[in-house]
Amino acid sequence: xxxxxxxxxxxTALREAADSPRDGECLACDEALRDSGHLIASEALAPVHTxxxxxxxxxxxxxxxxxxxxxxxxxxxFLLIDARDLNEAIRVAARIPAARVGGVEIRPxxxxxxxxRPMAG
Length: 121
Known about the structure:
By secondary structure, this protein is α+β, with helices and mostly antiparallel strands.
């Protein structure tokens, strides 16, 4: 089963952790998760000040600079993993170094079933 691990944290704390000698620990974790067959994809995100939010209401799109919401923790990156079940996904997420300075939200990936979606038009 696929799970998306969303890495959240205070941008300053995450940046300090990444700039520390532990940065190699993050790369080593990524490599170990790939080698174990758990990691499908992973990426870090640019700082939150680079975000752009798009909202569509009644057919009109509005674009604003910045994230959708003001929060103490920001989305910093993600890992898409393959795990047998939620318990294994939790064990994998606990290995992510950023979990020590932030949090990792684990969400099951829901398959989009094209057969059950209505046809456009």
